[in-house]
What does this fold into?
Amino acid sequence: MPTKDEVDGSMVDLENDPKGKICNPMPEDDQPNTIYFRICYLLYIIVVAVILGLMIFRPYSFTGHPSISLIVDAFTGLSQNDTFDRFSPFFNFTLDVKRPRNLFGTPHDFCYFSGDVTVFYKEVKISDGPIEGYCVRKDGKQAIMLFAWGKDVEMPDILHNQLVDDARHGVAEVKVNLYLPISHSWYEFWVCRAKIGTMEAFPCN
It folds into this structure.
């Protein structure tokens, strides 16, 4: 096998070319740019793979944990009663519970034990009530009816007038706390912020 070759009209020794200057046509100064290009190309492939993965698995949940939204179906008793500066509100809610398709979570029903609901306006507690236990099947959804009421609730006149006026215009926002036990020692605490006087579904966190 010949050990010499002719490049550009000159004789060169291939065996004594440890850096591959003859076989590698790219100058040494351009090699770091090539490494940088390869790194950028690898990062591009990773980003594309992540985006495709999110698009494919977006409808799924890794735990099978349900999502909850709240609808204020009806309310009454916001006006002051005969006790002068007190009122007794009543709320009718619907919990819209959805359980997404599950990849790695438990395949059986997701159940809550009996809990309670508490309603606040401007951090003033105005009503509460019980929540019966329920279960949501895998890949299913369920609507839960909730009732909360207050008795002789005290509130400053300015704040109460604002509540009545905002409720009349459908902009009164209440905070609804949900205490939902999932076992005898574990529970979930959900916070929903909903506007009364509308029939919109508001997500809970």
